[in-house]
């Protein structure tokens, strides 16, 4: 009897050790994946350059989507999912750090305007997700979406982000960069 109990105890410990090792490996793999997703933003430098790099990456996904044919429904679905993830992470960083700092620096109307446009971004994602990817109206809808995104990006990069950067000290710009990267890592 004691031999069976010892053997059962040993098996139980082995299972617990294996399960724990698997859980740790899974958590570590997720952290590595998150770091890899956020790395391009981190390496881009200051917050405004990092956001501009994310804008450029999103436009490349739009380029790929615009090259698809109506019958390429699986590719459209996959690329739309990638675009949605990239823009959602990007928007999370902007809304939780940059737009909040804009409000703190007296750019409230501009921050609210940009945040309002993010609502339309979500609407486009909903519409494009709900539409059949083979629908001939899908690509024109995507192009309308891109037009909104490009205007939004241009307003940020050429006007509002330089205004905010100019209002902030070097220390504040460094802080906003770190805070934005921390927020991005959450959704990476």
Give a concise summary.
With 188 residues, this protein is an all-alpha fold. It has helices at residues 2-43, 47-66, 73-104, 108-130, 138-167, 170-187.
List the helices and strands and how they pair.
Blueprint (H helix, E strand, L loop, with lengths): L1 H42 L3 H20 L6 H32 L3 H23 L7 H30 L2 H18 L1
Helix pairs in contact: 1-2, 1-6, 2-3, 2-5, 3-4, 3-6, 4-5
Please describe what this structure looks like.
The chain is mainly α. Helices cover 88% and strands 0% of the residues. α2 packs antiparallel against α5. The model has no long low-confidence stretch (mean pLDDT 89).
Major beta-sheet overview: none
Order of helices and strands: HHHHHH
The helix content is over 70%
**Shape call:** flat
Instruction: Count helical runs.
Output: 6
Q: Compute the average pLDDT.
A: 89
List keywords for this structure.
88% helix; 188 residues; mainly alpha; 6 helices
